[in-house]
Amino acid sequence: MKRIQKITIILFSLSFVGFSQTSKIEKYINDNKDNELASFSKGSVSEGSLTNGKLFPFSGPNFHYFDTLSYINSRAYLNNKVKEAVLETYTDLKNEFPDRQFCIMECSNKHGGKIIPHRTHQNGLSIDFMVPLIKNQKPYYGLDTIARKHYFLEFNEKGQYSFDTSISIDFDLIAKHILLLNKQLNKQKLKISKVIFKIELKDKLYATPNGQLLKKSGIYFAQQLTPLINGLHDDHYHVDFEEMK
Ligand SMILES: [Zn+2]
Protein backbone atom coordinates (compact mmCIF):
# COMPACT_ATOMS: atom_id res chain seq x y z
CA MET A 1 0.00 0.00 0.00
CA LYS A 2 1.26 3.42 -0.85
CA ARG A 3 2.43 5.42 2.14
CA ILE A 4 0.02 8.27 1.52
CA GLN A 5 -2.98 5.89 1.41
CA LYS A 6 -1.87 4.29 4.67
CA ILE A 7 -1.63 7.66 6.38
CA THR A 8 -5.07 8.67 5.09
CA ILE A 9 -6.60 5.45 6.47
CA ILE A 10 -4.88 5.87 9.85
CA LEU A 11 -6.01 9.49 10.13
CA PHE A 12 -9.53 8.52 9.11
CA SER A 13 -9.75 5.73 11.72
CA LEU A 14 -8.39 8.01 14.42
CA SER A 15 -10.92 10.70 13.67
CA PHE A 16 -13.68 8.08 13.56
CA VAL A 17 -12.81 6.73 17.04
CA GLY A 18 -12.61 10.31 18.34
CA PHE A 19 -15.90 11.24 16.74
CA SER A 20 -17.82 8.21 17.98
CA GLN A 21 -16.59 8.72 21.57
CA THR A 22 -17.37 12.43 21.49
CA SER A 23 -20.83 11.90 20.06
CA LYS A 24 -21.60 9.26 22.72
CA ILE A 25 -20.66 11.72 25.45
CA GLU A 26 -22.63 14.53 23.83
CA LYS A 27 -25.69 12.30 23.54
CA TYR A 28 -25.35 11.19 27.16
CA ILE A 29 -25.06 14.79 28.39
CA ASN A 30 -28.05 15.76 26.27
CA ASP A 31 -30.15 12.89 27.63
CA ASN A 32 -29.23 13.70 31.24
CA LYS A 33 -29.60 17.44 31.57
CA ASP A 34 -29.83 18.78 35.11
CA ASN A 35 -33.28 19.68 36.40
CA GLU A 36 -33.74 22.76 38.58
CA LEU A 37 -34.46 20.83 41.74
CA ALA A 38 -32.05 20.66 44.67
CA SER A 39 -30.34 17.32 45.24
CA PHE A 40 -31.13 15.18 48.24
CA SER A 41 -28.39 12.95 49.62
CA LYS A 42 -29.99 10.27 51.75
CA GLY A 43 -28.24 8.02 54.28
CA SER A 44 -24.47 7.81 54.37
CA VAL A 45 -21.68 7.58 51.79
CA SER A 46 -21.55 3.83 52.44
CA GLU A 47 -25.31 3.19 52.47
CA GLY A 48 -27.38 5.81 50.78
CA SER A 49 -29.08 7.19 47.71
CA LEU A 50 -29.20 10.36 45.65
CA THR A 51 -32.29 12.21 44.40
CA ASN A 52 -31.90 14.86 41.66
CA GLY A 53 -28.21 14.03 41.24
CA LYS A 54 -26.36 16.35 38.84
CA LEU A 55 -24.03 15.14 36.12
CA PHE A 56 -20.54 16.61 36.41
CA PRO A 57 -19.29 18.14 33.11
CA PHE A 58 -17.13 15.74 31.07
CA SER A 59 -14.58 18.50 30.67
CA GLY A 60 -13.97 22.18 31.34
CA PRO A 61 -11.21 24.74 30.74
CA ASN A 62 -8.74 23.05 33.12
CA PHE A 63 -10.23 19.64 33.95
CA HIS A 64 -11.63 16.48 32.46
CA TYR A 65 -13.39 13.34 33.58
CA PHE A 66 -11.03 10.38 33.33
CA ASP A 67 -13.05 7.66 31.57
CA THR A 68 -15.69 7.74 28.83
CA LEU A 69 -17.27 4.39 29.74
CA SER A 70 -17.49 5.30 33.41
CA TYR A 71 -19.14 8.57 32.39
CA ILE A 72 -21.80 7.12 30.10
CA ASN A 73 -22.43 4.32 32.61
CA SER A 74 -23.86 6.85 35.07
CA ARG A 75 -20.89 7.15 37.47
CA ALA A 76 -20.28 10.92 37.43
CA TYR A 77 -23.22 12.29 39.45
CA LEU A 78 -23.02 14.54 42.50
CA ASN A 79 -25.15 16.44 44.93
CA ASN A 80 -25.69 19.88 43.30
CA LYS A 81 -23.88 21.68 46.14
CA VAL A 82 -20.80 19.45 45.77
CA LYS A 83 -20.85 19.91 42.00
CA GLU A 84 -20.97 23.69 42.44
CA ALA A 85 -18.11 23.72 44.98
CA VAL A 86 -15.90 21.46 42.85
CA LEU A 87 -16.48 23.60 39.74
CA GLU A 88 -15.74 26.81 41.65
CA THR A 89 -12.56 25.19 42.94
CA TYR A 90 -11.45 24.43 39.37
CA THR A 91 -11.98 28.13 38.60
CA ASP A 92 -9.81 29.05 41.62
CA LEU A 93 -7.14 26.60 40.40
CA LYS A 94 -7.31 28.13 36.92
CA ASN A 95 -6.59 31.55 38.44
CA GLU A 96 -3.64 30.28 40.48
CA PHE A 97 -2.23 27.75 38.01
CA PRO A 98 -3.40 28.93 34.56
CA ASP A 99 -1.52 26.26 32.62
CA ARG A 100 -2.33 23.28 34.79
CA GLN A 101 -4.86 20.54 33.92
CA PHE A 102 -6.69 18.35 36.45
CA CYS A 103 -8.62 15.07 36.34
CA ILE A 104 -11.67 14.01 38.27
CA MET A 105 -12.47 10.32 38.66
CA GLU A 106 -15.55 8.41 39.84
CA CYS A 107 -18.39 10.09 41.73
CA SER A 108 -21.83 8.44 42.30
CA ASN A 109 -24.56 6.81 40.23
CA LYS A 110 -27.43 8.99 39.04
CA HIS A 111 -29.69 7.71 41.83
CA GLY A 112 -26.87 6.74 44.18
CA GLY A 113 -26.73 3.31 45.81
CA LYS A 114 -24.09 0.63 45.38
CA ILE A 115 -21.41 1.39 42.81
CA ILE A 116 -19.05 -1.55 42.50
CA PRO A 117 -16.16 -1.75 43.46
CA HIS A 118 -16.45 1.30 45.75
CA ARG A 119 -17.54 0.86 49.35
CA THR A 120 -18.75 4.44 49.51
CA HIS A 121 -19.74 6.88 46.70
CA GLN A 122 -23.41 6.06 47.42
CA ASN A 123 -25.14 9.41 47.91
CA GLY A 124 -23.43 12.03 45.73
CA LEU A 125 -21.06 13.08 48.52
CA SER A 126 -17.85 11.24 47.50
CA ILE A 127 -15.31 11.95 44.76
CA ASP A 128 -12.04 10.40 43.64
CA PHE A 129 -9.53 13.00 42.43
CA MET A 130 -6.58 11.93 40.28
CA VAL A 131 -3.17 12.84 41.72
CA PRO A 132 -1.43 15.58 39.68
CA LEU A 133 2.02 14.48 38.50
CA ILE A 134 5.36 16.08 37.73
CA LYS A 135 8.36 14.95 35.71
CA ASN A 136 11.56 17.03 35.60
CA GLN A 137 9.81 19.81 37.56
CA LYS A 138 7.13 20.10 34.88
CA PRO A 139 3.49 18.95 34.90
CA TYR A 140 3.17 15.46 33.45
CA TYR A 141 -0.06 14.18 31.87
CA GLY A 142 1.13 10.93 30.26
CA LEU A 143 -0.80 8.77 32.75
CA ASP A 144 -4.01 10.81 32.78
CA THR A 145 -5.49 9.27 29.66
CA ILE A 146 -5.48 5.55 30.49
CA ALA A 147 -9.07 5.65 31.80
CA ARG A 148 -10.06 3.08 34.45
CA LYS A 149 -6.61 1.45 34.37
CA HIS A 150 -5.47 4.52 36.28
CA TYR A 151 -6.92 3.01 39.47
CA PHE A 152 -4.30 0.23 39.25
CA LEU A 153 -1.20 2.43 38.93
CA GLU A 154 1.29 2.02 41.74
CA PHE A 155 3.42 4.65 43.43
CA ASN A 156 6.20 3.98 45.91
CA GLU A 157 6.51 5.50 49.40
CA LYS A 158 8.25 8.57 47.98
CA GLY A 159 5.30 9.14 45.67
CA GLN A 160 7.21 8.06 42.56
CA TYR A 161 5.53 6.01 39.82
CA SER A 162 6.77 2.42 40.20
CA PHE A 163 7.63 1.91 36.53
CA ASP A 164 9.33 5.28 36.04
CA THR A 165 10.60 6.97 39.20
CA SER A 166 11.23 10.23 37.32
CA ILE A 167 7.44 10.71 37.45
CA SER A 168 6.16 11.71 40.87
CA ILE A 169 3.11 13.00 42.71
CA ASP A 170 2.80 16.79 43.05
CA PHE A 171 2.00 16.74 46.77
CA ASP A 172 1.93 20.50 47.25
CA LEU A 173 -0.69 20.86 44.52
CA ILE A 174 -2.89 18.18 46.11
CA ALA A 175 -2.75 20.07 49.41
CA LYS A 176 -3.60 23.36 47.65
CA HIS A 177 -6.52 21.70 45.85
CA ILE A 178 -7.98 20.35 49.10
CA LEU A 179 -7.59 23.74 50.84
CA LEU A 180 -9.32 25.59 47.98
CA LEU A 181 -12.02 22.94 47.85
CA ASN A 182 -12.63 23.30 51.57
CA LYS A 183 -13.12 27.05 51.13
CA GLN A 184 -15.69 26.59 48.36
CA LEU A 185 -17.48 23.86 50.31
CA ASN A 186 -17.96 26.25 53.21
CA LYS A 187 -19.87 28.61 50.92
CA GLN A 188 -22.22 25.71 50.15
CA LYS A 189 -22.60 24.80 53.83
CA LEU A 190 -20.69 21.62 53.23
CA LYS A 191 -17.50 20.27 54.72
CA ILE A 192 -14.97 17.54 54.11
CA SER A 193 -15.71 14.66 56.45
CA LYS A 194 -12.80 12.47 55.37
CA VAL A 195 -9.92 12.23 52.91
CA ILE A 196 -8.52 8.80 52.08
CA PHE A 197 -4.94 8.82 50.83
CA LYS A 198 -2.27 6.13 51.20
CA ILE A 199 -1.00 6.35 54.80
CA GLU A 200 2.69 6.23 53.76
CA LEU A 201 2.21 9.26 51.49
CA LYS A 202 0.52 11.48 54.06
CA ASP A 203 3.83 12.65 55.60
CA LYS A 204 5.11 13.67 52.14
CA LEU A 205 1.90 15.63 51.65
CA TYR A 206 2.14 17.38 55.04
CA ALA A 207 5.82 18.20 54.45
CA THR A 208 5.05 20.61 51.57
CA PRO A 209 4.24 24.34 52.17
CA ASN A 210 0.53 23.90 51.42
CA GLY A 211 0.61 20.55 53.18
CA GLN A 212 1.57 22.31 56.41
CA LEU A 213 -1.46 24.59 56.03
CA LEU A 214 -3.55 21.51 55.29
CA LYS A 215 -2.33 19.84 58.46
CA LYS A 216 -3.17 22.96 60.49
CA SER A 217 -6.64 23.13 58.92
CA GLY A 218 -7.62 19.98 60.78
CA ILE A 219 -9.22 18.39 57.69
CA TYR A 220 -9.54 14.76 58.65
CA PHE A 221 -7.44 12.13 56.87
CA ALA A 222 -8.07 8.41 57.42
CA GLN A 223 -5.55 7.24 60.02
CA GLN A 224 -5.74 3.52 59.43
CA LEU A 225 -6.69 1.57 56.35
CA THR A 226 -6.79 -2.10 55.40
CA PRO A 227 -3.83 -3.04 53.13
CA LEU A 228 -6.19 -3.32 50.14
CA ILE A 229 -7.80 0.11 50.62
CA ASN A 230 -4.43 1.68 51.49
CA GLY A 231 -2.81 0.25 48.36
CA LEU A 232 -5.59 1.56 46.12
CA HIS A 233 -5.32 5.18 47.28
CA ASP A 234 -2.01 6.25 45.78
CA ASP A 235 -3.09 7.18 42.24
CA HIS A 236 -6.03 9.18 43.59
CA TYR A 237 -7.30 10.76 46.77
CA HIS A 238 -10.83 10.06 47.87
CA VAL A 239 -12.86 12.83 49.49
CA ASP A 240 -16.13 12.39 51.40
CA PHE A 241 -18.32 15.43 52.05
CA GLU A 242 -21.05 16.13 54.52
CA GLU A 243 -23.72 18.75 54.86
CA MET A 244 -23.31 21.08 57.82
CA LYS A 245 -26.10 20.82 60.34
ZN1 LIG B 1 -13.33 6.71 46.28
Report on the architecture of this protein.
The chain is an alpha+beta fold. It folds into two domains: 31 residues; 209 residues, Muramoyl-pentapeptide Carboxypeptidase, domain 2. It is 37% helix and 23% strand. It has seven helices and 14 strands. The strands form five sheets. It has a four-stranded antiparallel β-sheet, with no helix packed on it. It has a three-stranded mixed β-sheet with strand order 4-5-7, with no helix packed on it. Helix 4 packs parallel to helix 6. Bound molecules: zinc ion (ZN).
Which properties best describe this structure?
alpha+beta; Muramoyl-pentapeptide Carboxypeptidase, domain 2; 2 domains; 4-stranded antiparallel sheet; 3-stranded mixed sheet; 7 helices; 37% helix; binds zinc ion
